[in-house]
Amino acid sequence: MYFIQLAGAALRKGRHMKIPKYSLVKDTLKAEITTGNFSVGQKFYTEAELIHKFNVSSITVVRALSDLVREGYLVRHQGRGTFISQAPQRKNEKLVHIINQSITNEVSAVVYVQRNSNHKILSELDLNDDNYCIAIARTHSVNDMTFEYQENYLVKELIDEHSDKNKYTQLYDYISANKRICLRDEPYEQSICIEVPAEKHVADILGLHEGEVCVKQIRKTSSSITGKPLEYSLSFIRCEFFKVSITNR
After folding, report:
1. Lower Cβ count inside 10 Å, N or C end of the chain?
2. Structural domain contains residue 26
3. Residue in 179, 199, 188 with CA at minimum distance from that of residue 232
4. Predicted confidence band at 60 (pLDDT cuts at 50, 70, 90)?
5. What percentage of the chain has pLDDT greater than the value 90?
């Protein structure tokens, strides 16, 4: 009963925070699954039980269940019901990149802030060709060595174009403080590859020799509320400053 009351409180809070009800229902159910309240293959709640449990509509319940099925936590069998997936714990696997943790005297600098109308970039941000985004390029250095070069392409609503470019040295902190959006906490898709060789302009910035490689990270961040893209970014990192950590809980 305590768990149901807690979920209900979260839903009431969500009305003020404008968090979709289905998202709160999904996250609550996901927590039940991943913390061991159910065993693999066990039958899950029915839609009617969830409607009563959370005091929400059938549309909200169906949306939450559909997301959990798509993410691999649940499997649905017509005429039989909904069951816990064979391997729900694998969905807790996280892959993150870590810039060398020993860096203590990092210096960041903004290279430019400008409008960008590149078709590929606009399409990644779901913008029409007659629109534009804001491109911000930055470098991150230590001991006079540039170890990372970033190009961030953001929807124009997040950036004040005519501000001093140095305000964007700590870009995410600026957006969090001035636009009340924490990009670090928004959902994103990320891919990592080795750029062989590094593009010339990137190699020049990172101080790489001809033919040397670098790590390339592509990241697309979207709004957790609207689902619309907020940022598309490219990061180029010297290999000796990069590692990957994988955890499975």
Report:
1. N
2. yes
3. 188
4. very high
5. 48
